């Protein structure tokens, strides 16, 4: 059988994705681990390797710690999708995907800070925090666009 091959040309702006969609989101995740969860462990007395504390009622220390932990874990749960779709979608739409990297970083920081208050609904209170989902959806659509053009 004869197989055909497609040549993919990487656009000039593609390198920006290494910074905005690779390095910066990784730095945000590290900030969450060491700037939100680590201090929350000390403040609320939740030692490693305990992943989540047992909460007896909304608003107790365990509950507040769990909010900090969920902010970090939700970010980690969505990060592989963000990486994959950004780098695939960036083949055709590098500038748009790079902008989504900046949006992802900003919205994740304000979203996590809201969640870390111990009031889960506060994760969407800050300006731009709802764009955690916009920053995932646009690269997903860009990756579909890139796939259809190959």
Automatic annotation (TrEMBL):
It is found in: Membrane. The chain crosses the membrane at residues 13-34, 131-148. InterPro entries: MAPEG (IPR050997), MAPEG-like_dom_sf (IPR023352), Membr-assoc_MAPEG (IPR001129). One of its GO terms (cellular component) is nuclear envelope. It is a multi-pass membrane protein. Keywords: Membrane, Transmembrane, Transmembrane helix. GO terms for molecular function: glutathione peroxidase activity; glutathione transferase activity. The keyword Chloroplast does not apply. The keyword Cell wall biogenesis/degradation does not apply. GO terms for biological process: leukotriene metabolic process. PANTHER family: MICROSOMAL GLUTATHIONE S-TRANSFERASE. This is Glutathione transferase. The lineage of its organism: Eukaryota, Cryptophyceae, Cryptomonadales, Hemiselmidaceae, Hemiselmis.
